[in-house]
Amino acid sequence: LLTIISSIDDLNYPEKTHTYFIVNAPYIFSACWKVVKPLLHERTRRKVQVLSGCGREELLNIMDYASLPHFCRKEGSGSSRHSEGGSENCYSLDHPLHQQLYNYINQQARLREAVAPIKQGSFHVDFPEPPDVDTRIAKTIESGFDSLTLNGNKERLNNWTGAQA
Fold first, then answer.
1. What residue stretches are annotated with the CRAL-TRIO domain (predicted)?
2. 4-37 burial code (b ≥16 CB/10 A, e <16)
3. What is the total count of domains within the chain?
4. In the prediction, which pLDDT does 35 show?
């Protein structure tokens, strides 16, 4: 429970985190990091440590062996994808977790009855047609004339249009 609370706290309040250790980063990440790092604030640069390989030695300076991620416990490149032991390779389809998950999904699928799709009727929706551009222009002109009439300019308007008062 404490790990979950700590993770939620770190995700929502990253400024409280002292240091981020990035391990097993591909070369492209390291190259991008070298470009981006000078653009970051000094405080942020101090918080992020990109370790080469699995960073096992550096991590052992700050944590116990039991706390190391599984891919850092092995000697070599640090990548569990290339580990020898099949039972510890979490990327393998033969990993016990994947086998249990597969068996559980199959069991649940057998327990459920097949459900035929429900036929639904169709219906028509009328969309209002947008107002005609000419109609909008005419209404704008009429409202302009109405405002001239209201401002006491009716006589000047009649003289201009040739209409009788």
1. 1-69
2. eeeeeeeeeeeeeeeeeeebbbeeeeeeeeeeee
3. 1
4. 92
Domain membership flag for residue 154: no
**Do the Cβ atoms of 87 and 96 come closer than 8 Å?**
yes
d(CA 147, CA 145): 5
Residue 82 lies in a domain: yes
What the block records as the tokens of 87 is: 């039972």
The parent domain of residue 60 ranges over 2-107
Burial degree of 72 (CB within 10 A; 0-12, 13-18, 19+):
buried
Tokens read off for 142: 């009429």
Summarised one tens digit per residue, pLDDT across range 6-62 is 777 767 776 677 788 888 888 888 888 899 899 988 888 888 888 877 788 888 888
